[in-house]
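Supplementary Note 2. Why include the ligand at all?

Several targets in our set were suspected to adopt different conformations when bound, so apo predictions alone were not considered sufficient. For every target with a known small-molecule partner we therefore ran a joint prediction. The input for DAU is given below.
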Amino acid sequence: MSGIGTVLVTGGAGFIGSAVIRHLVGDVGVRVINVDALTYAASPSSLAEVDASPLYSFKHADIRNREALADILERHRPDAIMHLAAESHVDRSIDGPDDFISTNITGTYTLLEAARGYWSGLGAGDRSRFRFHHISTDEVFGSLATGDPAFTEETPYAPRSPYAASKAASDHLVRAWHETWDLPVVLSNCSNNYGPNQFPEKLIPLMIIKGLAGEPFPVYGSGENVRDWLHVEDHARALWQILTRGRTGESYNVGGGSELRNIDVVTGICRLLDEFAPAADGASHLERIEFVTDRPGHDFRYAIDCAKLENELGWSPRESFESGLRRTVAWYIENRDWWQAILETRYAGGRLGTRG
Ligand code: NAD
Ligand code: DAU
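The joint prediction is reproduced in token form.
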């Protein structure tokens, strides 16, 4: 038993945060306080199934607001913090890094200080049980070439985009708070997630929505870049295992063991759309794939070795990429209202991150 009954989740109205909260409230049965500033990336409707639960509460607050954080911590007295709030989109970090530096670095620093203040005031038992779980990305390790060994927890940091650099900085801050003040932290670095409720700026939902709108599929560069895909529900399960059973001060890599070239992902989406939503003229969606100008500094390949997580904590992904992608395409077809609201008010699907 972890003894963790109440978890403060930051960024819970986002893609992964909402999946984590659905898992914690719906499957695990712990109390959750969701702290989210509701930026452009937030979709509170992703939490509809837990909204009415007595286990769930929402606090509209920014992680850069130390007083608000201190107040929430004192009032709700969580046993753990799962920190997911961040600016998360690489292309936007190229268009404008300010919010990435501010939220991902200063925001994490502010949260660490609020957490340290709260934790140091706890009684001995509560203090030793407390965990600060920082949720990070494999992008901190940089870019691999074909044939390079996958990232392990020992791989040196070599971030290359403003987003990746800001997440690397936040990882270093979290480790520093552990080394300096003994704050009981645990970290995880995960590969590309996909699944329901993902904001349609990211590759998979963007391509599905482009396909349903009859628009071209913009593939950056040659489409040879490789990502390692993990279904978001598998990530949510991994995070709970890491929070409750991971060793303090350690980091754990999380990945799906599903390395694919972008062009193969997009081809797979086209084939599923041909099956689920055939074009009126009978043409295959494959005919609308277009190779467009590459992302500046585009990392070539990410690959994750998650043997530590599998061996120490017994986690492994349940969803294959093939069935997960099928479910995801079906979800976007069945949940048009969810993404139409975004297209109409916050992001219409245009190209981002081209360096002007
Ligand atoms: P997302 O962009 O979908 O959601 C981010 C959430 O954080 C939003 O609800 C937003 O309102 C909130 N937020 C942003 N700035 C905030 C602030 N200053 N104060 C409070 N809340 C704020 O992100 P995501 O894809 O769900 O990613 C969640 C976390 O997981 C991030 O830390 C990201 O770096 C990490 N991660 C993401 C992936 C991925 O594939 N998406 C993979 C590995 C790690
Ligand atoms: O690896 C983990 C990271 O994965 C997370 O930390 C980030 O938060 C998350 O956004 C994701 O970063 P990527 O840059 O890999 O994801 P994105 O969906 O933006 O792009 C995936 C790949 O697809 C990448 O090689 C760029 C390419 N791409 C993307 C878009 C949006 C295209 O070819 N066309 C597109 O229109």
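Residues 98-120 form the longest helix (23 residues). Residues 64 and 110 are 6 Å apart (CA to CA). Comparable summaries for the other entries are listed in the accompanying table.
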